[in-house]
Amino acid sequence: MEVFNLLKTIIQERRSIKKFNGKSVALSDITAVLEDAAWAPNHGNREPWRFVVAAEKGLEAIRTTIKECTVPKWNMLAPEELEQKTAGFKLPGAFVFVIVPEDLRQKERLEDFSAASALIQNAQLLAWEKGIGTCWKTPAWIDAPKFRQALGVKPGERILAMLQFGYYDELPKAKERTPIEEKITYFG
Ligand SMILES: Cc1cc2nc3c(=O)[nH]c(=O)nc-3n(C[C@H](O)[C@H](O)[C@H](O)COP(=O)(O)O)c2cc1C
Q1: pLDDT tens digits for 2-59?
Q2: CA atoms of 82 and 86, how far apart (whole Å)
Q3: Is 56 left (phi over 0), alpha (psi -120 to 50) or beta?
Q4: Cα(121) to centroid(ligand 1), Å
Q5: 145 alpha carbon to ligand 1 midpoint, in Å?
Q6: Taking CB atoms and a 6 Å cutoff, what residues make up the pocket around ligand 1?
Q7: pLDDT by residue (tens digit) across 73-97?
Q8: What pLDDT sits at residue 188?
Q9: What structural domains does the chain harbor?
Q10: For atom 30 of ligand 1, which residue has the closest CA?
Q11: Atom of ligand 1 at shortest distance to CA of 172?
């Protein structure tokens, strides 16, 4: 019984962290989280996910790649302006890009995206338990060809999430949820 209450608490109290404090997250913490998160349900045990992880020594490299590959018009900015616009990318302590296959069959594609989403939520909860905040991000440039190429994303694959990990100083307020009764239609 206690186990279920703990789970309920972690699910309810996890928050998306949008302001990290710049402290880096150990690669071993990221791989431990992914190892456990991979117990997500997935049809046919296809395990429809792979990851590009940027932590520790990869952290500076991914920040540079994001700057260089994402918003073309940023290339025209003066260095100080670019620095200001991209300052936020310095703060997460690790990045994980979750990549899923785009099955040509509709049903399998839906299943695979759903399974990878379950994995992502597992990862967010597991990180939270370790005191590490996360935010699932889908920036406008996530499908930009230059960025996909830099990450080694192949045709037939899609980046489902830029998952940011990091430490934080302030806990954001929860966005209230609609009472579930308003979302339920009782059948029969
Ligand atoms: C599929 C998906 C995409 C998201 N993309 C973004 C994003 O691009 N930028 C962002 O700030 N938050 C993003 N979020 C996080 C949501 O803003 C966040 O989950 C929501 O505000 C609820 O907050 P909570 O997670 O603390 O309950 C995304 C969440 C999901 C599930």
Answers
A1: 666 899 999 999 999 999 999 999 999 999 999 999 999 999 999 999 999 999 999 9
A2: 6
A3: left
A4: 11
A5: 23
A6: 15-16, 18, 135-139, 175
A7: 666 777 787 777 777 666 999 999 9
A8: 95
A9: 18-170 (3.40.109.10)
A10: 136
A11: 26
